[in-house]
Amino acid sequence: MDSVDHDALLEGCLRPFRAGGRQITVSAAAQQDDGASCRPPVLVPGRAVLVVDGVFLLRARLRELWTVAIYLKASPAECLERARHRDRPVLGSVAEVERRYLTRTVPLPQRCRA
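User: That's the sequence. What structure does it adopt?
Assistant: Structure tokens below.
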């Protein structure tokens, strides 16, 4: 399972935003249910820019939706250190963060560019 529910992202956020919708659903679902699906819709101002963050968002399935894509390169050690702080509350332990990071996230940029 990815860290983002691509169908929810497409239907609740990206497609409505691109169509000029006045509200979108913003919920980046983590690896486990953190209540993201219960968040209320967000009102979109008349002039808005949508910024979406995440390495899984560079996959071919979503590539055509981006006007601009920026890939920030950081060392694996720096990314892991950030993940330890960011993802521990969701994943429950530093060991689980490291396991997922080292088996899924580190190899991901090579898969996304394909």
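The chain is about 45% helix and 5% strand.
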